[in-house]
Design a protein that fits this description.
Layout: H1 6-12, E1 31-35, E2 38-41, E3 46-49, H2 52-55, H3 64-76, H4 88-101, E4 107-111, H5 114-131, E5 139-143, H6 152-155, E6 176-178, H7 184-197, E7 201-206, E8 210-211, E9 217-218, H8 221-233, E10 237-241, H9 256-259, E11 265-268, E12 280-284, H10 286-290, H11 311-326, H12 329-344, E13 353-359, E14 362-367, H13 373-382, E15 385-386, E16 393-396, H14 404-419
This protein binds pyridoxal-5'-phosphate.
Pyridoxal-5'-phosphate (PLP) binds at residues 113-115, 118, 147-149, 207, 212-213, 241, 243-244, 269-270.
Length: 423
């Protein structure tokens, strides 16, 4: 056996890992390189990545077109502050995103993470009302199963009971939590709630079509049409958090396209730079933007991350959008979706399985229970795949470019591990 490199042991004493019980969790796998849809480990193993690095690497790893764009930008200007200065990569990207989103989503505010993009969306919505002289609209209507980030503002708009921040319940800002209007009865109930409480609300915040980190919970596009109707009827801003669903994951470039309705504000991040550099965008309608135009400097949007509009990240995003333009990503998403639907279907017959569902390039096997998460994860790694089950689900969100042989290997691994029963 070759000795493992010393940086693993030396550094592990000093690192604090994400979402990890550091007392009991299995140590993380040391990665030395990535390529295509593979993750190569320090010990020489190669894993098929089933989740595209937390839903970011939509074109696979190390795509030469993105790498070239970053390299070229690095030579010219890696970063320059965005306060009082501007540059072509950011302005052109704003124009390009507005073009892709279409009329009604016109003004782009850049940040560097999804959580901050949601914070900015919430700040925009609250200040929209303040600037119009309406105080007291500090709450958002959010939904059971929601996840919108890890910062304090966004923890408060995650599902307070079943979400990952439940420990903080009662310590965060208060918001209204409702069931998604999936049928007439819940629509009527929500309408009645809004008739009473809308004057305390700044807006409605939802992950369209799939609530991701809340458990890959899917709903019909009709739900989004109902929310648009309710937002209009009660005079509220509608915010779609497309940080997970954006850029082809649900089968269309953006999830809202499937519902034929637009939000007033949208948040994007995860796959925005094709999984290379941190970047996020909050995009608002001209109506929202106009509420900040005033002779009063206090009506400006008081937000400005140090690395706002980072030129390297904008160059990466351009290259990623080039690939969506030049290559048949949505067809690939559809093909992956069909393979997942067919390949995961046999799981439906297993006693340990509660539900199997797919949408776009997302495949989910929901189990009745997971007793030993560490062992389940190890079984998947032993099958040569990188999949991160959480809650009660094992799910796949592969790169949209994944070749059929790697996809087959992933599907086989999930089938094998699920068929073996609870660990
Ligand atoms: C991942 C995610 C976020 C948070 O993004 P970070 O970049 O991790 O801060 C917010 N909303 C949704 C829907 C997400 O999937």
């Amino acid at each position: 056996m070759t000795r493992s490199p010393s940086w693993i042991e030396d550094g592990s004493r000093h690192i604090w890992l994400p979402y990890t019980q550091m007392k009991t969790a299995a140590p993380p796998l040391p990665v030395v390189r990535t390529s295509g849809t593979r993750i190569e480990l320090a010990d020489g193993r190669s894993l098929v990545d089933g989740i595209a690095s937390w839903w970011t690497a939509c074109h696979g790893y190390n795509h030469p077109h993105i790498a070239d764009a970053i390299r070229a930008q690095l030579e010219v200007m890696p970063h320059v502050m965005f306060g009082g200065l501007t540059h072509e990569p950011a302005l052109h990207l704003a124009q390009r995103l507005a073009g892709l989103l279409g009329p009604g989503l016109d003004r782009v505010f850049f940040t560097e993470s999804g959580s901050v993009a949601v914070e900015v969306a919430m700040k925009m919505a609250m200040q929209y009302w303040l600037n119009r002289g309406e105080r007291g609209r500090s709450r958002f209507l959010v939904f059971k199963g929601s996840y919108h980030g890890d910062t304090f503002g966004t923890m408060a708009v995650c599902d307070p009971e079943d979400g990952m921040h439940a420990l903080f319940k009662g310590l965060l800002a208060a918001h209204d939590v409702a069931a998604l209007p999936v049928d007439d009865a819940s629509m009527v109930a929500l309408d009645a709630h809004l008739a009473q409480h809308a004057d305390k609300l700044a807006g409605i915040l939802v992950e369209p079509l799939v609530q991701g980190a809340g458990g890959m919970l899917m709903h019909s596009p009709v739900v989004l049409q109902r929310l648009r109707t309710l937002a209009d009827r009660h005079g509220l801003l509608l915010i779609f958090d497309e940080i997970f669903t954006g850029f082809g994951r649900t089968g269309s470039l953006f999830a809202f396209e499937q519902a034929g309705v637009k939000p007033d504000i949208i948040t994007l991040s995860k796959a925005l730079t094709g999984g290379t550099l941190p970047l996020a965008a909050t995009v608002a309608s001209e109506r929202v933007f106009d509420a900040f135009l005033s002779d009063n400097p206090g009506h400006a949007l008081m937000h400005g991350p140090t690395f706002m509009g980072n030129a390297l990240a904008c160059a990466a995003a351009h290259a990623s959008l080039d690939l969506f333009e030049r290559e048949p990503r949505l067809d690939q998403a559809a093909a992956i979706g069909a393979a997942l639907r067919e390949g995961l279907a046999p799981c439906k017959d297993l006693a340990w399985v509660k539900d199997v569902r797919t949408l776009g390039a997302i495949g989910v096997v929901e189990l009745t229970r997971i007793d030993d998460m560490n062992r389940l994860k190890q079984r998947l790694i032993d099958q040569g795949v990188w999949v991160r089950p959480f809650g009660r689900i094992v799910y796949l969100t592969p790169a949209l470019t994944m070749a059929p042989d790697d996809l087959e290997r992933l599907i086989l691994a999930v089938n094998t591990v699920v068929a073996a029963g609870p660990p």
